[in-house]
Amino acid sequence: MIIFYSQNINNGVAKLADDECQHCSKVLRKKMGDNVYITDGKGHLYTGAIGLISKKEVEIVSLEEIERQDAPHRIGIAISPTKNIDRFEWFLEKATEIGITDIYPFLSKRSERKVIKLERLEKRMIAAMKQSKNLHKPTLHPLMALKEVVSGDIGFENKYIAHCMEPESALQKLYTSGTDAIVLIGPEGDFTEDEVSLAAANKWTEVSLGKSRLRTETAGLVACHLLNLD
Q1: What is the DSSP secondary structure assignment for residue 40, as one 8-state letter?
Q2: CA nearest 129: which of 100, 103, 96?
Q3: Where residue 8 falls among pLDDT bands split at 50, 70, 90?
C-alpha cells in the first residue's frame, strides 16, 4: 500500500503538492480516476479517486475514511543533533517508525552541529511515517538552546535527563507506562555537570539508559523505545 501525505484535506477533498504531487503524477504515473490512499499525519487514513492532475497539484476527491489510529500519549525526545547529519536523520526515521510525538533539537555546550535544515528533516520523517503506516507525524520543533528546553513550559508530565555520570536510577524503573514523558539526550561529549545541575534545578529527573556508553542517536532511540513499552 502506497500512502500519500496531505496537509490540505477539507470537505472530502485532499490536495497533494510539492514532493507528494510529483511522486504521485510523475514517479508513479497515476491517472485520473485512480484510487489512492491519503493520511493527514493526525491518525486518519483515507481513500479516494484522483479528480485533477496539474503540474503543481493533484486533487483527490470523494474521500472515505478507512482507518483511524488513536492519538498516542505524548512522547518527547529532546536531543542534540549529531555532527554527522546522516546519523541524526537515521534517528528521526526510526523514532517516527516506533512512535514519537515531539522532537526538540537543542544546542548545548558540547554540541558539534549548530545548524539543521528543518525542511529536509521533515521530509525524512514523512517518508518514515508513510512507510511504517504509523498515521501520526511527529512535531519537529525548531532548534533551540538547552536552557530554553529545560526551563520552558513544554507540557510533559514526566521530564528526564539521561547522562553518563552514573545517575542512580534507570529510566525503565522510574517511568510509568502510558504517561506523558520527555527525555533529554546530550551530544557526543555528553552534558556538562552544570547542564545536569540546571536540568535538575528545573525538576528534570536524572536517569541512566543502561550500562553501555551509547552514541547520541542510539541513546535517543533507546529512550524512545522505553517510553513506548506497554
Answers
A1: -
A2: 96
A3: very high
Q: Are 88 and 115 in contact (CB under 8 A)?
A: no
Q: Answer whether 0.85 is exceeded by the pTM.
A: yes
CATH superfamily of 3-68: Hypothetical PUA domain-like; domain 1 (2.40.240.20)
Which pLDDT belongs to residue 55? 87
With H, G, I as helix, E, B as strand and everything else as coil, classify residue 22: helix
DSSP 85-144: HHHHHHHHHHHHHH--SEEEEEE-TT-------HHHHHHHHHHHHHHHT--BPPEEPPPE
CA atoms of 199 and 181, how far apart (whole Å): 15
> Structural domain boundaries of the chain?
3-68, 75-228
C-alpha cell at 109: 555546550
* % of the chain at pLDDT higher than 90: 91
**Domain covering 75-228, topology:** Alpha/beta knot (3.40.1280)
pLDDT tops 80 at residue 230: no
- Whether residue 102 contacts residue 76, with contact meaning beta carbons closer than 8 Å, is answered with yes
